[in-house]
Amino acid sequence: MSTTKKITVTVLAAALGVSTLAACGGESKDDSAGEGAGSGSKTVTLVSHDSFNASPAVLKEFTKQTGYTVKVLKSGDAVEALNKEILTKGSPQGDVFFGVDNTTLSRALDNGLFTPYEAKGLERIPEAVQLDGGEHRVTPVDTGDICVNYDKKYFADKKLAPPRTLDDLIKPAYKDLLVVENAERSSPGLGFLLGTASAYGDGGTSQGAASGGGWQDYWKKLRANGVKVVDSWELAYNQEFSGSAGGKAAKGDRPLVVSYASSPPVEVLYAEPQPKEAPTGVSTGTCFRQTEAAGLLKGAKNEAGGKALLDFLISKKFQEDMPLNMFVNPVVKDAKLPALFTEFGEVVAEPRTMTPEKIADNRDQWIQSWSSLVLK
After folding, report:
1. What is the DSSP string of 102-149?
2. What's the rounded Cα separation, in Å, for the pair 176 and 115?
3. Cis peptide before 126 (omega within 30 of 0)
C-alpha cells in the first residue's frame, strides 16, 4: 500500500532519499560479503515506497535481536517502487521489498521477484489477508482502507453535507470538489479505481448503484463533475486538499481527496496544539480494502538477514509501532492499537474488496480504459 504519509516523514524522506534506520554504529564496512548471520554482511536493505517509517527504538530492537542493521531505500510511490524492482529483477537493489499489495501483487509474482519464505509467526495472521495461497512468496504486513476524505470546515461553512458514498460524488452539489490520484502511477489511485469496479461492475450491469452503466460510465460522470487527477498521493493530499495541514499551506482548494480511513489521526498528531476533533473526516461508503505485504527479493545478497527482517515485520513490537508511524492497521491478531489511532481514525465495517485473481485478470485493461476515459 502506498500508505498514508505523514507530512514530517515525507519531508524527511525527500531530504534523505536513502536512510539507515538503526543503532549499533550504522552500517558494517563488510557490506557486500556473504549472506549468513554469523559472517558476511551485517546490513539488510529494505526497499520500499516513500511511506515506510518505523521508530528508531524499534529498529534498534531488531539490531539487538539479530545483529543486523536495517538500511531503507525509498523508491517513490508504491507503484513506482514496484516498477523499479521489476526492471532490476534478479539483481535487486536490496534484500526485502515492502509495499506490494493486493492491487499490484500479480505483477510482482508474474515477474518472479520473490524467493518463497514462510515467516515465523505467520500463524498469528488471519488467512483472509494471506494473499499468496500458501506459497509464501509474500508476507502480509498491514491493511488500510482507501477512502475519500473531506474537509470538515469547508462543508460546515457551505452548510453542505459531505458525501458518504460513491454515488454522492457524481451529484452536482460536489462538482469540482474532488481530487484523485492517477491509477497508472499511484497505489491509492489504483485502489480507488478498483473500488469503483467492485461497486459498479465491468460493463453494462450496475450492481445496485445509481450510475447505471458499470465503472466506466461512473468515471465518465465523475469526469463531467469536475474530478481532478494528479500523479501522486503527496500532490493530492498535501497540495490540493484543503483539509490537510500541507494543503492549507499550499492553498489547496479541493475539499475532497482520495486518501485513507486512517488519515484523520495524522492531522491531530502533528497539529500544535492538538485539536479535540480531527479537521478531516472519512466518507465510509467510498472505501476499498488494501492489504500490503513484503517479500524476500530473488537474488538478495543478504538472504539470511532478509528472512530475519520478514520475521520482525510481523512481530508484535513492529506491528504495534506501525499505526502512528505509517497510519495503517496491523495484521497480527495480538497487536493493540494506540488510543489516538482508534479515537480519530475511522473503522470501516464493510469496505469493498476484490480477489487478487480478479485484479490480475483485469487490472491492466481497466487502467488502460480508465486512462482513455479520464486523462484524454
Report:
1. TTTHHHHHHTT-EE----TTGGGS-GGG-TTTTS-SSEEEEEEEEEEE
2. 46
3. no
- Give me the sign of the Cα torsion angle 276, 343, 236, 14: positive
pTM of the predicted model over 0.85: no
pLDDT reported for residue 15 = 30
- 3-state class (DSSP) for residue 318: helix
Find the Cα–Cα–Cα–Cα dihedral 80, 103, 53, 272, rounded to 10°: 100
pLDDT value of position 17: 33
SS3 content of the chain, % helix, strand, coil (to 5): 40, 20, 45
In degrees, rounded to 5, the angle at the alpha carbon of residue 297 between the alpha carbons of residues 51 and 74 is 25
Q: Average pLDDT of each block of 10 consecutive residues along the chain (376 residues)?
A: 42 33 34 40 94 95 97 89 93 96 93 97 93 92 97 98 98 98 92 97 55 85 98 94 96 97 93 93 97 97 98 98 94 93 90 92 95 92
Q: Do the beta carbons of residue 39 and residue 13 sit within 8 Å?
A: no
Cα–Cα distance for residue pair 294/114, rounded to 1 Å: 9
Q: Is residue 51 a contact partner of residue 325, using CB atoms and an 8 Å limit?
A: no
User: Distance (Å, rounded) from C-alpha 312 to C-alpha 122?
Assistant: 11
Instruction: Tell me how far apart the alpha carbons of residues 246 and 257 are, in angstroms, rounded to a whole number.
Output: 13
Name the nearest CA neighbour of 266 among 243, 288, 292.
243
| Secondary structure E strands in 254-325 | 256-260, 280-297
Phi, psi for residue 151 in degrees, rounded to 5: -85, 110
| Surface-to-core class of residue 202, CB atoms within 10 Å of its CB (0-12 exposed, 13-18 middle, 19+ buried) | middle
Residues 37, 68: contact at Cβ < 8 Å?
yes
Per-residue model confidence (pLDDT) at position 41: 80
Q: Return the SS3 of 291.
A: strand
